[in-house]
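Chain A, query sequence.
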Amino acid sequence: MVEIAKLIAPFVPYLSEELFQNLGAGESVHLADYPRSDSRFIDTALESDMQAVIDVVSLGRTARGEANIKIRQPLGEMHVPAKLRSALEKMLPLVQEEVNIHKISYVEEDSDFVQYDLKPQFKVMGPKYGKQMKAIAAFLETVDAAPALGAFAQNQAYEFELNSQKISLVAEDLLVQIRPREGYQFATMKDIFVALDTSLDEALLREGYARELVNKIQFSRKDQGFEIMDRILVKYSADSEIEAAISQYGDFIKSETLADEISRCADKDLPMIDINGREIGLLVQKTGV
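Chain A, predicted structure.
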């Protein structure tokens, strides 16, 4: 606790001082030496793996946003570079949960699954290359983007010869774009990409309805001021698709919302809510009321 008090001193000076004094550690935490890091506890491999997980999750959520697919709607498959396999496999359940994806597939470097276009940033490159810009732009349309992406990932320049002159481009000189692929939403970061399969079959849609229903029930609990451990009864009126989702995922919905019973109701006066574009009636009550 003494070391923690020292660590937090620059950020919460009064709290750290109170902790330090209560621990009888000395005159003042602000007169003590700041703790030094111990290199024995630095695990660079773990840091690298965790960064890969963070990047993939971030890109997956970005792709979802660009495709206008809610995070509560499960998706079937996400494609990522094969070089991330080792890092992601160690924390696969975490990645799948955070992106809400059923399966992660790995794309080898020599695969043509992802194709890139290199576009010159004319405002940046123009002052440097002037009249050569047209020739450079034409050259970039014909080359494989992989060498450029690899160089930029290592914070190096992408170099090539054009008309007997050496051209050296840095990441800021180029706009890297993934060619659209039907049925997929891409997101990129340096030399990392994710590709979400945005197709939704009946099974995925039903799971999405169930998760959205859980969210609406939880919101109703909070809106009515229920206690966290209050048991509830749920009544609903819905079409056949929502009915099928509740039938299949009823136990999941109950466990997530502390519902003792979920029952269909013929009452047309139930409060109406939207479940992924489908309007249903929903009433949430405390058990025993």
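The chain has four domains: 2-36, 44-112+181-200, 116-178, 203-286. The first strand starts at residue 75 and ends at 81.
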